[in-house]
Prior knowledge:
By secondary structure, the protein is of the alpha/beta class. Helix content is 47%, strand content 11%. An eight-stranded parallel β-barrel has the order 3-4-5-6-7-8-9-10, surrounded by four helices. Strands 1-2 form a two-stranded antiparallel sheet. β1 and β2 (39-44) form a beta hairpin. The chain binds phosphoenolpyruvate and manganese (II) ion. Residues 70, 97, 154-156, 181, 211, 248 line the site of phosphoenolpyruvate.
Amino acid sequence: MSNNEPNHEECDATKMTKEQEDDNPPSQMLRWVGNKNLSLQITIMQATEQTTVSVKDTWNKRPLIISGPCSAETEEQVLATAQRLAATGKINMLRAGIWKPRTKPGMFEGVGAKGLPWMQQAKKITGLPTTVEVATGKQVQDALTFDVDVLWIGARTTVNPFSVQEIADALRGVDVPVLIKNPINPDLELWAGAVERIARAGVKDIGLIHRGFSSYGNTEYRNAPMWHLAIEMKLKHPDMLMVNDPSHICGRRDILLDIMQKAIDLDYDGLMIESHIDPDNAWSDAKQQVTPEVLNEMLDTIIWRKEDVNSEEYHAALEKLRQQINHLDDELMQVLSQRMKIAEQIGTFKKENNITILQTNRWNEIIERASAKGEKIGLSKEFITKYFDAVHMESINHQKKILDS
Ligand code: PEP
Ligand code: MN
């Protein structure tokens, strides 16, 4: 147990504790809710009820902004966070972790099913639809019993086909939208596989959450964004909702805004950001959470970009620039083709002299020369290396054809 995380005992979902009973003022009404897997006594506060926005309408909102604490901790914390988020007028959906997958045992692992009525109550008070993370079939059933509107599959679950299949089986015949976070390791096939399993269960509304990928050692980010992977996933599923989770990418507050802006610049459909009424004392992910008011300011600071505008002038100017790009791309391909022809001549030469295709020294010389030149004209070393790797591979293939002929 880490020092700053309270020691919360496992919750027994079947009965109310003495403490909970004492906490319930007489103005509150008690109701029993049950199904074969779950029997919970929940508290319905007689607060002004808001009309909950239909989850289908919310799902189609752009940008879709989801926020709430990393973890539901207490009823007061969930309700206060929800109310302060709703007061910004910028939040479309309330999130909270109920069951928390933690890297090490002994840390706060979520309040469990007793947090579900808190989310239900928060929805009643604010009108915000709710979303929670599920990792097992039982958690799916419990969440649905308490009218959770959207379920999300966490990064540690997306990596495990057994768990994803168990969730898919629990979702058969249920019309509830599901968000699927990228797996913790940079494996697009696992992400795509999870989408396929949930889709095969008949779930119509599936969305993606890009929360970054874990990497070894200390980096600027808690989870490297690896934007290219999310973009590739988006290209595979162009019509699927794609939300960015800057909180788990950054792991800290100071760079959240940069990542949020980048996601919006890349035309993401929305953001999922963790918020807490007292971030420094949050029971999980304290460093990355912000208050609802700070989040409000951040959302005001972001430059919201549109994918398109209806101005003829803009389209004409864009078209001109695109023509120039097409023209340059054609030229680049011509030059590359000429380069390959020279590589083939070298191949012929090597064949006549019985020499290997790959000559490491020459390759190092090419990369060093190109990196130095590229840097002077604004091309990053990373790009130059990737580009020459691809060109070199193609060149080797051309030479090999000659050697094999
Ligand atoms: C979370 O959203 O709180 C969470 C646990 O996220 P992830 O699955 O991305 O680690
Ligand atoms: Mn978290």
